[in-house]
Amino acid sequence: MSIFTHVTVGTNDLSKARKFYDETLGKLGFKRLADLGDNGSIWGVDQPSFFVLKPANGQPASVGNGVTVSFQASNRAQINAFHDAAVGAGGKDEGAAGPRGWAENAYAAYVRDLDGNKLAVYCFKAE
Q1: Which residues, at least 6 apart from 38, have a Cβ–Cβ distance to it below 8 Å?
Q2: Distance between CA 23 and CA 63 in Å, rounded?
Q3: Number of CB atoms found within 10 A of residue 91's CB
Q4: Cβ atoms of 85 and 35 closer than 8 Å
Q5: What average pLDDT score do residues 35-54 get?
Q6: What percent of the chain has a predicted confidence (pLDDT) above 70?
Q7: Coil, helix or strand at residue 8
Q8: What domains sit in the chain, N to C, each tagged with a CATH number?
Q9: How far apart are CA 58 and CA 81, in angstroms?
Q10: 3-state secondary structure of 71
């Protein structure tokens, strides 16, 4: 059982965020499940799990210092594709795809989305 129902990040440009996340999360098998009008969108596989929303208080979205949202990949090729898609869509490289020494078989990549939210994608399967 997962310990989260979903994770939400904020955006200041919903149309650009939708395009970015359609492209990048699509590489992991996620799809956009719903649009919430001009307020946001929801991605997942078979249930909502990742929300991108304009802040409810009407203030500009900002990133959390020390916050990273990490997605699970089925294999290392998905991680490479995600990272390439994110950087190609205007995201910022925060750590190229490759092994991470803190856990056996850990392979990951890090990026920042167009609003500066830090994202990671991990796989713990052997190559």
Answers
A1: 14, 54
A2: 21
A3: 22
A4: no
A5: 96
A6: 99
A7: strand
A8: 7-54+67-123 (3.10.180.10)
A9: 34
A10: strand
